[in-house]
């Protein structure tokens, strides 16, 4: 089994131009599948609110939700670098609350790092969490927790003025002490510039090829999430269809008495006659 990555391994991979692979997982089986496949990192994303809890966005997700799911993922993936995603409201109010909640990911769910959304507006939070000795990942571009301010889940940095803001944010995040940065839904040329400019690893979800690795939402790539499919998703499987077909086959089997079969039964240990005698007692 491969040894669990550290933040230094991820930095080394950037230097060697070796791409890092990152998927989301929200529960024990998915964590285990990701580890068995040898992914470098797992994000327990607050996207769990949409992918496994059925919310319309990530805003309702709580710290307790994230801790519960992160614990399950860790049990399934004991040897994989796990990043806990700070949910909306867990770091916005104060630096103190941000540190307290970041600590929960490490203490209660054995996460290796935390991620939070935002650029220069969250610099004091990044500094405070880093000062607590925690590995922090930044996240800019399309930041779902502030999608209200963006007018929805919209790609970012497509004009030079907004791109300039993102470059300034990226630099500020690195200077604040973050050890990696995730770019979401921005043009590849901007991603390439930021990945070269920064010394920390820069990862993409919907932000193109030229950077240090890719993230994808497990529900999207596996076909488990049906509400929508962002343009940046590549579907590697249609597990949802596999599950629906399996349920249909089960329904058909039960209705037609093809399930259970003899091999699925617990056979009686006493004779048929003994059981008949027993049933007669109650007739
Ligand atoms: N299942 C899932 N996949 C995700 O990628 C994802 C989540 N959930 N939840 C949290 C955020 C929300 N994200 C989203 C959600 C929707 C689009 C989307 O539909 N985009 C459109 C329009 C883009 C635009 O107008 O700029 C697209 O065509 O891709 C993109 C990212 C990314 N994250
Ligand atoms: C969309 C990705 C980047 C994320 O933050 C999540 O999965 O919660
Ligand atoms: Mg998130």
Please outline what is shown here:
3-methyl-2-oxobutanoate binds at residues 46-47, 85, 115. With 283 residues, the protein is α/β, with parallel strands linked by helices.
Which keywords apply here?
single chain; 283 residues; alpha/beta; 2 domains; 8-stranded parallel β-barrel; elongated; binds 5,10-methenyl-6,7,8-trihydrofolic acid; binds 3-methyl-2-oxobutanoic acid; binds magnesium ion
Describe the structure.
The protein has about 280 residues and is α/β, with parallel strands linked by helices. The protein has 2 domains: about 5-235, Phosphoenolpyruvate-binding domains (TIM Barrel); about 240-280, no CATH class. About 45% of the residues lie in helices and about 15% in strands. The chain has 12 helices and 8 strands. The protein has helices at about 5-15, 30-35, 50, 65-75, 95-110, 125-130, 145-150, 160-175, 190-195, 220, 240-255, 270-280; strands at about 20-25, 40-45, 80-85, 115, 135-140, 180-185, 200-205, 215. Strands 1-2-3-4-5-6-7-8 form an 8-stranded parallel β-barrel, surrounded by 6 helices. Strand 4, helix 6 and strand 5 form a beta-alpha-beta unit. The protein is elongated. The N and C termini lie far apart (about 60 Å). The model has no long low-confidence stretch (mean pLDDT about 100). The structure holds 5,10-methenyl-6,7,8-trihydrofolic acid (MHF), 3-methyl-2-oxobutanoic acid and magnesium ion. Magnesium ion binds next to loops. Its EC number is 2.1.2.11. Keywords: Cytoplasm, Magnesium, Metal-binding, Methyltransferase, Pantothenate biosynthesis, Transferase. One of its GO terms (cellular component) is cytoplasm. One of its GO terms (molecular function) is methyltransferase activity. This is 3-methyl-2-oxobutanoate hydroxymethyltransferase.
